[in-house]
Amino acid sequence: MALSYSGISVEIREISLRDKPLDMLSISPKGTVPVLQAGPLVIEQSLEIMQWALSQSDKDGWLNNLEASADLITINDGPFKRLLDQYKYPNKFPEVAIKDTLDKAMDICLLPLEQRLQKSRYLLGDQMRLADVAIFPFIRQFSMVNSVWFEKSHLNHLKKWLNEQIESDLFLSVMHKYPTWHGK
Questions:
Q1: Is residue 128 predicted with pLDDT exceeding 90?
Q2: Domain residues for 88?
Q3: In the prediction, which pLDDT does 138 show?
Q4: What is the pLDDT, as a whole number, of residue 183?
Q5: Measured distance CA(163)–CA(166) in Å, rounded
């Protein structure tokens, strides 16, 4: 989304993580996605790709209030991401009860976001910021694990915010299925 918003044209290559192309591994030996190659520059983290793209063009000020965005993203990328993994893959975490995971996710992330969104349209006010775009995919994933639970939750402002992101022209313009790239 940040690349498209910034007007940066990219060639997207869908990768099978079970069959990583040697061409990909030659530019990014750690073998994870996403990877952005722009000439000699290689960026291997989503947030860093977003920040790089926004440093090229940020017409609406997504990078404004960057410190507050960074604080929210840190919670999301740390404790909430671990809880999301436990929630999505309960077989990998048999020692953790789903209810405990949900309770912690509510306390750490979902309720604080809900409270923010009760006061404003976006996480940091009435304008989209980096935090909204960085956190949105994780909330989307979380909502999809048990959509019935999520829809029945009292997270009404968070659900409205999520739906606005999902239905946005920007999101719809970038969410395409691509054939798996196998390299040269």
A1: yes
A2: 66-169
A3: 97
A4: 87
A5: 5
Judge if 153 and 102 occupy the same domain: yes
Q: Are residues 80 and 150 in the same domain?
A: yes
Q: Does 48 map to a domain?
A: yes
* 101 shares a domain with 164: yes
Please determine, for residue 161, whether its predicted confidence score (pLDDT) is greater than 80: yes
Looking at the structure of the chain, the number of domains it has is 2
**C-alpha torsion angle, residues 45, 162, 78, 134 (rounded to 10):** 30
